[in-house]
Amino acid sequence: MKKIIIIGVGAQGSTIARRMDEHPAVSEIICADYDIQAAEKLSKSLKKATAARLDARNLNNVIQAANGCDLVVNGLPLQYNLVIMEAALAVKASYLDMAGPMEDIGFVDSYRLIFSQWHEKFKEKKLTAMVGCGSSPGLANIIARESVDEMDSCDHIGIYIYEGVWATRYTPFWWSPEVAFGDMAYNTFRFENGKIIEDAPFSRPVMMRFRGIDQEIRMVDHEHDEPVTMGLLSDKVLKGVKSIEFKYGGPHVELSESLYRLGLLSKDPVNVNGVDIVPMDLVLKLCPPAPKFPDEIKQILDEGLVMEEGAFLVRVDGTRDGKRLRSDSYVNAPGLVEAFETSGLSHEAYLTGQCAAVFVRMMVDDAFADKGLFVPEQLPADARRYCFRKLTALKITVDNSIELRNAP
After folding, report:
1. Which CATH number goes with the domain that contains 209?
2. What is the pLDDT of residues 173-186, one digit of tens each?
3. Is the domain of 163 the same as that of 287?
4. Which of 28, 66, 110, 179 is most buried, by CB atoms within 10 Å?
5. What string of H, E and C letters represents the secondary structure of the chain?
6. 224 is in which domain, residue-wise?
């Protein structure tokens, strides 16, 4: 029996808590959040849970809250990752989060740091840490590894996510606008010929066709973990892949690009009639918050949707038996209406939260118990298959097709 603390009980953290409350191998769950009312509301709806107020900015606070736990699940923004990882080591607990750290040294160097120093710290204490375990990063990474393992060599990995959900009520984002705009305005990363390339936001636009979508979709490079982690591990687990990219598309991307081009996502003050204004602060002040509670989502759905479509594609190009192949893997998951009807969640929260819950369950069940710090593309075949089986039970499946490509 294992005791778990979940730090941050927003949409993803609360989904993990509900899944773990059903798990017979979990004896106790601590729902910890700065917002004690949110933690108490969640814990009262569960059988095995208690609530705790936690200010995660203070290492000693986290250590005290996590003492006696076997697993620390981090559902907070990236800036808290290293503090919570340090606390997990201090209480001798394993660790899981849904996205990698973002330190002042930069995104790439942050991952280099955790792959070296933090891997050794967890390994030395005979603990397991998993970083970037949601839908993307997370599910996307194990799909890519699964496809690469079917190839003799790998040329290219592309992760393409299009979200075409638009409501009658103006709802630009279904997750935190602060996180969304911040990610959109951050420099992008891609991997080319052994090097991680940093580029401007919204760079290298292309028009793409996706299964089930009538029109071509404009896709742009977007700051994300996968090109960084996969690039750093290209020779170790991805057969020396030569290029890796992450592209994003949809109405929220078009909105963000327009604001970015106007300078409205800048954090540098601008003097307006003698008053210094930070453009990003103004945008966030005026932007409607993401719907958080079921009654808010229901009100939006009752007012109607303009469109509900999307695509989640992991594409791998490589060779097998001397033939050039393209492996396309599409993720199938409940859309907004179905996700809300079945779970009271948005499509965004459902996919990321359920994927994260499966990775947590994998650790509870010791389906992966190697010691050290890992990202999902490092999981061996048996652990990846475990995740796919459990996700299928949650109506998250993957359709794969392989196409013979013409010789160059």
Report:
1. 3.30.360.10
2. 998 898 899 999 99
3. yes
4. 66
5. CEEEEEECCCHHHHHHHHHHHCCCCEEEEEEEECCHHHHHHHHHCCCCEEEEECCCCCHHHHHHHHCCCCEEEECCCHHHHHHHHHHHHHCCCEEEECCCCCCCCCHHHHHHHHHHHHHHHHHHCCCEEECCCECCCEHHHHHHHHHHHCCCEEEEEEEEEEEEEEECCCCCCCCCHHHHHHHHHCCEEEEECCEEEEECCCCCCEEECCCCCCCCEEEEECCCCHHHHHHHCHHHHCCCCCEEEEEEECHHHHHHHHHHHCCCCCCCCEEECCEEECHHHHHHHHCCCCCCCHHHHHHHHHHCEEEEEEEEEEEEEEEECCEEEEEEEEEECCCHHHHHHHHCCCHHHHHHHHHHHHHHHHHHCCCCCCCEEECHHHCCHHHHHHHHHHHHCCCCEEEEEEEECCCC
6. 139-344+395-404
